[in-house]
Amino acid sequence: MTTREIEEALNENMAPYLKAEREGSADSSPFWSALGNGYQGLGKKPKAVWAYQKALKGNPWNKDTQAKLKTLQKELKVPFDLPVLPPESLFYQVFAVSLLLALFIRRFFWVRMASFAVSILVLVWLGVQIWFLPAHGIIMSESDLTQLPTPFSPKVSEAPLLPGLKVKVLSYEEEGTWLKIQDPSGKIGFVPFNVIKVI
Predict the structure, then answer these.
(1) Distances (CA, A) of 110 to 3, 124, 143
(2) Contact 68, 36 (CB under 8 A)
(3) I want to staple 76 with a disulfide (CB 3.0 to 4.6 A). Which of 111, 136, 153, 164 is the partner?
């Protein structure tokens, strides 16, 4: 098989994953891990890093995905990091169980009150996660970190941001065409929105 035939076969196999990604219907760790494998097979390493990070967001304890991500980030020469927060799915499960206990346990008043309190705390934490903690993104193509949201602004550092690097997205600037980000070393600056895929 030629390289072109291999790429066409991989693209054909990736079609269902890409369709689900575009429609936003996939939200499971195995899906994102399989998508990362497909991107890696196509040689699209920054997109594979992004997909593996999405998989670890749902299940940070998956050793196979961790190993693939670590190997890939080593190849791209970017620092390896793991999600430090528990997965969102765990919060939803704790919320559902505690809410069910609060609503349907009638015999023990203290169990009902404790379950209700846990439900409220989980909701508050999810709110904090959604509205106050910065989103993370993966750099898709090499880009300079600039001081202002313009292409000719001075650079924050001489070294460009490498593809596959995980950064914090702090805000959107200039009608959403620029993103204010923080790199792993703590430097804050701006990059065009099209060089980052948010996790």
Answers:
(1) 66, 21, 56
(2) yes
(3) 164
183, 164, 154: which is closest to 78 by C-alpha?
164
Buried b (16+ CB within 10 A) or exposed e, 153-175: eeebeeeebbbbbbbbbeeeeee
Tell me the C-alpha to C-alpha distance, in Å, between residue 31 and each of 21, 56, 125.
10, 11, 26
Instruction: Give the model's pLDDT for residue 27.
Output: 63
| Selection from 96, 99, 80, 76 nearest residue 88 by Cα | 96
Taking only the tens place, the pLDDT of each residue in 147-178 is 988 888 899 988 889 898 999 998 887 677 89
Name the DSSP letter for residue 87: P
Residue type for position 57: K
DSSP reduced 3-state for 64: helix
Residue 170 in contact with residue 182, Cβ under 8 Å? yes
